[in-house]
Amino acid sequence: MNKTISTAVSEVLSEVLERPVTGIRPDMRFDRDFDLDSYMFVQFLLGLEDKLPGLRFDPETIGQAGFNTMEKLVEHIEASLAQGEQAHA
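-> structure tokens emitted (89 positions)
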């Protein structure tokens, strides 16, 4: 798992949940394991956009169901950042 992305996820989750978050595993679910509701999840994604330069979530696809596990979210972020780098190359 990408260290930069996983660190950003831990930091932003800690901010949104107002408690330290460590030891995130790829199979962890944001709704079940972190008790994020839809409002908190959007806050979380917006925080990730601030933390990871070039990352933007499409408001049309910004749904918790699509990437509710750490693994799915990291895959999405990696693909999004890779597309952004290709667009600027």
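The radius of gyration is 12 Å.
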